Amino acid sequence: MATKKTARGRKQDRARVAGGQKHEARYEAKKTGRSASAVKKAVKKVGNSRKRVEKRLGR
Questions:
Q1: What is the pLDDT of residues 1-46, one digit of tens each?
Q2: Considering the entire predicted model, what is its pTM?
Q3: How far apart are CA 59 and CA 57, in angstroms?
């Protein structure tokens, strides 16, 4: 039986930043105009909530 392709969980996933994954740190760095290491530090400091990370980075 094939698995269903639903949007369940995608909104939750987009609300988080995985600081340990290079592609997510690069994406957020490009989006905010900061470095990937600054993104990783922000994730460590305020947690992985995208809103808090962007607020910390000054976006």
A1: 666 677 667 778 888 999 889 999 999 999 999 999 999 999 999 9
A2: 0.78
A3: 6
The number of residues making up the chain comes to 59
Distance CA 12, CA 35 (A): 24
Query: Does residue 2 form part of some domain?
Result: no
Cα 20–chain centre separation: 10
The burial class, CB within 10 Å (0-12 / 13-18 / 19+), for 1 is exposed
Q: Give CA–CA dist 40/25, Å, rounded.
A: 7
Sign of the dihedral through C-alpha 33, 11, 20, 26 = negative
Domain that holds residue 53: 11-57
Asked if residue 1 belongs to a domain, the reply is no
